[in-house]
């Protein structure tokens, strides 16, 4: 702070807390309370720690600010001051160099260092510019991006949940091994919350998964095809969406194409799904995805193959013979060949891997069937939409069947598939 006063020039500053080396430049603190007869030239006042000036770093802390005088670049006249400070006439009466009363330099440095640390560590939420495809933009606007504030991704918790999912797959494998043949697997033992018959194999697989989830000690809401909704611990915003066996008919009949599907979400819509886990009990393939972290097959990122720009192979799922006959004619000229494999979740996984070019469900589907697999589709930058109840990302994570779905490599192909199903 610079003040104007009497004829002399006085520099007032507390004694330096750090000893100065003999070869170091002189600072204001060296002048003490000495009075000079002429004005001195103050070149700069710099933040300093020892010999370091003008830097704010995270590895080393700055303790305080010292006022320092740079050497005057012009040659000194022989009649110079005893302290080697050039003298000359000035239009000031008195010059005081004092710390600013309202500025705590050390506290300000701490504040800046904290801001840098927080900027480095804080995960940035996805915004509308991060949309995977054109269908995302109106949804991001509607949700105000809240669906992309992660509680799992990038933390140790996601690995804990992944290990829980893998343990659940082993539990279901044990159930399957103990229930061989149709007589053990296909008896109807009740009706699921989704409205379908609950068979013995469905009930046994779900019971094994529930026991596994109880061991986590976590707070969440379970959404399961047979059980419906059940609160674990204190509940909270987290949802775990489970289909114990997607492709139940295949499992009952011994066809090796059915899977366990688990999605972990930090909210109640499709946009909130953070972790996807699917295990194909026929092929032994493990499909996983993390929101913003890509999709993997057996622990390795999915390869470069994506669905083709034209539909060579189209999967019909969630279907009956009558529905196939009704809608197959609508895709003539749009799709070259049809595949009906009996698991909507696995069809979406195969789409994500580029093994299929399009997927349609011919009956309204529930979130338990697709909550996990849809994340793989979106992490690959592919398109998926609800035919009757868009937008897809706003779809609730519950057991109600609301709409048929279409999925393909581009939004345009999705629109064509939706139009074909609605014709």
How would you describe what is shown here?
This protein is 27% helix and 22% strand. It is α+β, with helices and mostly antiparallel strands and 423 residues long. An 8-stranded mixed β-sheet has the order 11-10-12-13-14-15-16-17, sandwiched between helices. A 5-stranded mixed β-sheet has the order 19-18-20-22-21. The protein folds into 2 domains: 1-122, no CATH class; 148-422, Fructose-1,6-Bisphosphatase, Chain A, domain 1. Helix 3 runs antiparallel to helix 5 and helix 8 (344-352) packs parallel to helix 10 (373-379). The relative contact order is 0.10. It contains 11 helices and 22 strands.
What is the topological layout?
Blueprint (H helix, E strand, L loop, with lengths): L1 E3 L4 E2 L24 E2 L10 E3 L2 E2 L10 E2 L29 E3 L7 H17 L14 H8 L12 H23 L3 H4 L2 E4 L5 E3 H15 L5 E5 L3 E5 L6 E8 L1 H6 L5 E7 L7 E8 L5 E5 L3 E4 L2 E2 L9 E7 L3 H8 L6 E5 L4 H9 L5 E4 L5 H4 L2 H7 L3 E4 L18 E4 L2 H12 L1
Parallel strand pairs: 10-12, 18-19, 18-20
Antiparallel strand pairs: 1-7, 2-3, 4-5, 4-6, 8-9, 10-11, 12-13, 13-14, 14-15, 15-16, 16-17, 20-22, 21-22
Helix pairs in contact: 3-5, 8-10
């Amino acid at each position: 702070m610079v003040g104007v006063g009497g004829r002399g020039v006085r520099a007032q500053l507390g004694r330096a807390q750090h000893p100065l080396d003999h070869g170091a430049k002189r600072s204001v603190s060296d002048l003490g309370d000495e009075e000079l007869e002429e004005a001195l030239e103050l070149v700069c006042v710099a933040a300093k720690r020892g010999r370091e000036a003008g830097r704010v770093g995270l590895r080393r802390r700055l303790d305080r600010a010292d006022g320092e005088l740079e050497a005057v670049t012009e040659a000194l006249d022989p009649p110079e001051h005893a302290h080697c400070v050039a003298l000359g006439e000035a239009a000031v009466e008195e010059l005081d160099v004092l710390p600013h009363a309202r500025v705590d330099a050390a506290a300000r440095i701490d504040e800046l260092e904290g801001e840098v640390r927080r900027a480095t560590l804080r995960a940035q939420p996805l915004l509308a510019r991060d949309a995977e495809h054109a269908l995302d933009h109106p949804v991001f606007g509607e949700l105000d991006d809240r669906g992309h504030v992660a509680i799992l991704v990038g933390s140790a918790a996601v690995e804990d949940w992944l290990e829980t999912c893998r343990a659940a797959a082993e539990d279901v494998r044990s159930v399957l091994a103990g229930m061989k043949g149709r007589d053990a697997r296909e008896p109807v033992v009740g009706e699921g919350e989704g409205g379908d018959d609950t068979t013995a194999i469905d009930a046994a697989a779900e019971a094994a998964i529930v026991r596994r989830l109880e061991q986590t000690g976590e707070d969440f809401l379970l959404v399961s095809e047979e059980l419906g909704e059940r609160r674990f611990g204190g509940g909270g915003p987290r949802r775990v969406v489970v289909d114990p066996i997607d492709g139940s008919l295949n499992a009952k009949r011994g066809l090796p194409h059915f899977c366990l599907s688990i999605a972990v979400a930090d909210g109640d819509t499709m946009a909130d799904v953070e972790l996807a886990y699917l295990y194909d009990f026929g092929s032994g393939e493990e499909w996983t995805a993390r929101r913003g972290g890509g999709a993997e097959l057996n622990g390795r990122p999915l390869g470069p193959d994506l669905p083709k720009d034209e539909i060579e192979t189209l999967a019909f799922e969630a279907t009956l013979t009558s529905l196939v006959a009704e809608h197959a004619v609508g895709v003539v000229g749009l799709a070259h060949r049809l595949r009906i494999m009996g698991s909507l979740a696995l069809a979406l996984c195969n789409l994500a891997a580029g093994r299929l070019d399009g997927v349609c469900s011919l009956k309204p589907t529930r979130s338990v069937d697709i909550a996990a697999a849809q994340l793989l589709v979106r992490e690959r930058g592919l398109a998926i939409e609800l035919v009757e109840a868009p937008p897809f990302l706003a779809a609730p994570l519950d057991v109600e069947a609301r709409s048929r779905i279409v999925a393909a490599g581009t939004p345009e192909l999705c629109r064509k598939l939706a139009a074909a199903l609605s014709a």
